[in-house]
Amino acid sequence: MNLSFNQPIRQAVSATLDEYINSCQLMSQALGISQVLLNKENQIVFASPAFAQQFNFGIEELIGENFNHKMAGVFSASWIKQLDIVHAQIITKNQRRIYLEVCKKNTLVETHISHKAPVFDQKGELLCLHIQYKPFTIARLANLGAKFHKLEGYYPLTRDGFAQVELSRVQQMIIYLYVRNYSYTEIAAWITRFSHQISPTAVNKQLSKLKTIFNVDSSDALKDVSFKYGYDVAVPVEFLPEGIHDITEDAFDLWLC
Asked: How far apart are alpha carbons 233 and 213 in whole angstroms?
């Protein structure tokens, strides 16, 4: 599918910045969209409650602030530097783009999808940069089953419910892949490709250690406790590179939106 995202948007809005902000407020109230608007000086002129909640800000501390300065408390310096480059390219080329944004949080990664588009007025002057954020999570069938079958208290819906169990880096990678039904050979190939050299035999030995750690005596029981503690969505930092990755042309192939 060709969405022609590389072509200029070639459209402007017949509205003032205040009018555009008002329309975004209405959308935020009606749909709960996480969005933020930046003016020419990169100042935040509008932030939705969903955006503030997503990044743990108060609305009152955002308006009028430099976007990069505020996000510096959330992301690394290299991330902020990349933000400058990405936003300048979008505005200069007059393109809407989709990004997978990956941030390291200790031993895991936090990810979200961002849709960014410049908005111009009828005179061709930049009105604002419009950014919408969507959390990116790998679907949990267990959570869907629990929701629709009215099961409570078993599978955590957020990372707050994860087990506080200290695992080695290799063990954390193995359990993430194992609970998502990768074979010993596939696990070994994946980990070897992206981080540590390991054999299928070594993977099997580590799984035996994991059974001891979680006090279970079978592979099914290990998978069950892994689902329970959320390891199927706890993506290890080794598997996704930190940064802002343009996925505009690949969003549909990657099943992201």
From this structure: 19
- Asked if 127 contacts 147 with a C-beta cutoff of 8 angstroms, the reply is no
What pLDDT sits at residue 146?
A: 66
Query: DSSP code of 39?
Result: -
pLDDT of residue 1: 35
Cα–Cα distances in angstroms (integers) from residue 115 to residues 57, 88, 256, in the given order: 20, 15, 11
Rounded Cα gap, residues 79 and 202, in angstroms = 36
Nearest to 170 by CA among 145, 153, 187: 187
Closest CA to 74 of 112, 33, 35, 118: 112
Tokens standing for residue 191: 């980990």
pLDDT value of position 161: 54
Report the alpha-carbon distance of residue 236 to residue 111 in Å, rounded: 12
Residue 226 tokens, joined: 């892994």
CB–CB of 151/144 below 8 Å? no
Structure tokens at 129: 């940069």
pTM: 0.80
Which residue from 65, 223, 39, 3 is spatially nearest to 119, judged by alpha carbons? Answer: 39
Only one residue has tokens 């072509």, namely: 7
Which residue do the tokens 């031993």 mark? 107
C-beta separation of 91 from 224 below 8 A: no
pLDDT digits (tens, 9 = 90+) for 110-137: 888 999 999 998 888 999 999 999 877 6
Phi-psi region of 167 (alpha: psi -120 to 50; beta: other; left: phi over 0): beta
> Which residues 6+ apart lie within 8 Å of 201 measured at CB?
184
